[in-house]
Amino acid sequence: YRIKYAPFRDERNDIGGIIIVFQDITEQHKLDNMRKEFVANVSHELKTPITTIKSYTETLMDSGDIDKALYEKFLSVINNECDRMARIVRDLLQLSNLDYNKTKWKKVNYSVEKLLKEACLKLDFSLKEKNQSLCLDIEEDIPDIVIDKDGMEQVILNIMSNAIKYTPDNGEITILAKQVNDNVVITVKDNGIGIPEEDIGRIFERFYRVDKGRSRELGGTGLGLSIAKQIVEAHDGDIILRSEYNVGTEVDIILPIKTAVIHS
Ligand code: ADP
User: Which of 103, 122, 242, 248 is most buried (most C-beta within 10 Å)?
Assistant: First the structure.
């Protein structure tokens, strides 16, 4: 609390009392801390690839006669680090557009089945690479949803690719879609490494990762879940994650069924 006080004078200018103001600054303080932590995270995330690029470039410049294979290996490291920075900047720009409501949504009636099948097709290669099985279970007569197709596809892709990334080879990914009251609930389930209980509460925060090393190795930016959450919220929906360490993870994407599409 911030406390301010001032004497209270009556018409004869005598002190008649004191005014005390208690200002709750916890919320302000929390926001300030989050902002500072975010800036520290962005700087750190970008500094790591820059340091690598710099040191590999210097080594290449200093070495006269370098073995061709080694030369190519160094260039490939530099190239990968550039890709990583590009991914981080792309995700940050997207979050910033979402923050400032600059994203232009084109919401249309869309079939849940079509949405899920198209997303699965895009991840077919990653699934096969890890020899993971995919089970798609869509309730019959499930109503259409009103979505921005590209945005909602990105949500599904982010959640599904996490399921693939954080599940070992030969694992099982299941996607369920059903109507629950006035919502369509899409659940992405895996039997992967899971998330420890103490991390679940912070998992939607920007850059929050259970294992930074592992996430980086797998090409993650630590922003996928926060982007997914923001897109779902822009559809008046919600996203919920349940997980058990070493058992698996389930993510519910809850979207309201709206019958009228308002074209703006
Ligand atoms: P990342 O780019 O690191 O995957 P995300 O925002 O998509 O970033 O996810 C944040 C973190 O949540 C991941 O680093 C990982 O630790 C954890 N996570 C997300 N999905 C899963 C999952 N299906 N199984 C286990 N851990 C997960």
Answer: 248
Distances in Å between the alpha carbon of 112 and those of 7, 116, 121, 253, 254?
65, 6, 14, 12, 12
Q: How many helices (H) and strands (E) does the chain have?
A: 8, 9
Number of Cβ within 10 Å of residue 171's Cβ equals 19
**What is the rounded CA–CA span in Å between residue 206 and residue 95?**
9
What is the β-pairing status of strands 133-138 and 172-180? parallel
Q: Which residues pair with 256 in a beta bridge?
A: 183
Cα distance between residue 155 and residue 162, in whole Å: 11
Is the pLDDT at 260 greater than 70, yes or no? no
Cα 143 to ligand 1 centroid, rounded to whole Å = 30
Tell whether ligand 1 has an atom less than 6 A from the beta carbon of residue 193: yes
* CA-nearest residue, atom 7 of ligand 1: 224
> ipTM surpassing 0.95, yes or no?
yes
What is the overall mean pLDDT for the chain?
93
How far is 247 from 190, CA to CA, in rounded Å? Answer: 9
Tell me the per-residue pLDDT of 190-247, one tens digit each, with 9 for 90 and over: 999 999 999 999 999 999 999 988 888 888 899 999 999 999 999 999 999 999 999 9
Q: pTM of the full predicted structure? A: 0.87
Rounded CA separation 20/7 (Å): 9
HSE on the CB side for 21, CA within 13 Å?
8
Q: Is the CB of 249 under 6 A from ligand 1?
A: yes
Nearest Cα to Cα of residue 88 among 20, 41, 26, 125: 41
- For residues 220 and 228, is the Cβ–Cβ distance under 8 A? no
